[in-house]
Amino acid sequence: MTTSQHLADRAALDQLVFMSSSEGIMIFESIRDDVGVIVDLRHVDANPAALTIVQRPHEELVGNLLSKTFPGNFETGIFTHYKRALETGTKDSFEIHYRHEGLDHWFDVSSNPVGADLIIITFVDVSRIKRASALLARQEEELRFILDAVPARIWYKDDKNTILRLNQAAADAMGMSVEEAEGANAYDLFPLLADDYHRDDLEALDGMEPMLGIVERFAPKSGQQGWISTDKIPLADSAGDDRRLLVVSTDITRLIAAEEELRLANESLSHFASIAAHDLQAPLRQIGMLSDLLKEELGDSDKEGKAGTVVAQIQATSKRLRMLVTRLLDFSKVGTHALKLTGVALEDILEASLGEVGLDKAEIATVELDLDEPSHVFGDPILLTQVFTNLFQNSLKYGPKEDLRLTISSKVSKGLCTVTVWNNGEKIDPDFSERIFEVFSRLEDSPKVDGAGIGLAFCRKVITRHGGNIWLDSDNREGARFVLTLPSYAKSTGMTGPVQ
Amino acid sequence: MKIFIVDDDPMDRMFICNALRNQGADLTLMECENGRQAVEETSNTEPVYALVDIRMPGLNGFETCAAIRTNRPERECHLRVLTTSSATDDHDTAIEHGADAVHVKPATSAEYADLARAILADWNIVTQH
Predict the structure, then answer these.
(1) By the CB < 8 Å criterion, does B110 face chain A?
(2) pTM value?
(3) Which residues have C-beta within 8 Å of that of residue A446, sequence separation ≥ 6?
(4) Is residue A448 pLDDT above 50, yes or no?
(5) Fewer CB near the last or first residue (10 Å), C or N of chain A?
(6) Which 63-102 residues of chain B touch chain A by CB within 8 A?
(7) Can you state the percent helix, strand and coil of chain A, rounding each to 5?
(8) Strands A118-125 and A38-46
């Protein structure tokens, strides 16, 4: 092969590369001013790829000045790159987001000076990659924002107890930075509890079912210990070697502490009340007995005398005190005794209560029952009977002495049975609507009304323990109207309303 | 007829003793102020009639009933618990420990009289009333 043949082949090959390259190639010559400074470039040639990328025909470019065809090159400083490359004779490459002459592209550009006045510019449109990675960065930022904005602690883990990602709250709780914790293993970060955490992770992953509301200890190596409530949600399409799950925890340390404190307080209060009531009962009973014996000793000799009156007063007072103590003891028991829950007809309970206070007799009061059929409730029949007995006793005590009317109605809706007890007595001042439910609270301090002031407190305690509520309906225009809710009971299915 | 009254509270012993005496039966009332004394003093008696309180220092009423029964298992024993407690748990426990019946201590002398009469009738002890 001759040298000339060789050169001709080489030129043909270069031409082929120029024409078929997927990179844009543009060739410029420099335009200098009077003192030899490069002030512009003139298009010498451009390959098909370049024309496609910049969307111009060949004839619009070749022979024309860069300042006319792509003036944006001057505004963006690209021209300065070319100029410097020509002046120094060194290659240069840079990335530019070019938004001129109707173009909006990311270009990866290389400039290759050939001699002092010719420069070959090659460029690739990297817009798609750039946009994809910008989107990815944006999404990453959004995800990070969402994760960190949530107050819960969030971990994203694999099936080997490795923390792949976590949010700021989780990292803070562990006494670490997000960067430190990501990629670390729970076995290193939670030496005491990692086994338990891992076991639950695997259970959620094996069952492909979320595990919700796990109450567990939180004891990181370097953070504050406490209690958390955790949900573990397996990633739906994770399987095989690539199983992932989301772990979301809320700090319930204070809640647990408060619950425990409350439980202890309740327990000791109840214990105290029960002991106190027991220990009070014995001497009280004895005072009653001693006054009985004293009365017998006095016999008929002093029946109308002063001693007899005093003894009678002692008997009455000790009887009242005994009643108070008994009621207090009953009240203290309600808080702790296990409820014997069962489905029971409201009507049966009401009838038992009405009988208990003698309201089943027509001459005492007009009682009207307006019950939603069927009104079955889920509760402890003995305690509920006591609740209605107390309410009816109040009607008798505080209602009109003549022509007492009592209306009891019920409505069942959404798993709740709402019962209202109305009497035509005096309307209770709404200001006292809460105070009447307190222990030893009585609105009327009149000797003719006998009571301990525990009845309504007892009712509220019982109803609350059943998951219901009891209140005075202060919107009621006349009479006294109490409303209470209880979980309803569907006799056919055995389904109950919400029970605490 | 000998009846043991086992109660650490002298006043409570007095109430039930009064009520029993007033029934007019021929009774010897033996007061014991604790369970140990009751077990000792009943050991040579047959049949045993006893009214036992639950809450006592030392042997409580349950333990006292059980001890009296096991002391001489073959003899005739009539044990009743007399208590301030109205808790059903206590009642069940008393029965489990060998009491025949449980009574709540009355609060009036009329009730005491009724109780005394009922117990003596259950035990077939003849009264003059």
Answers:
(1) yes
(2) 0.50
(3) none
(4) no
(5) N
(6) 84-85
(7) 45, 25, 30
(8) unpaired
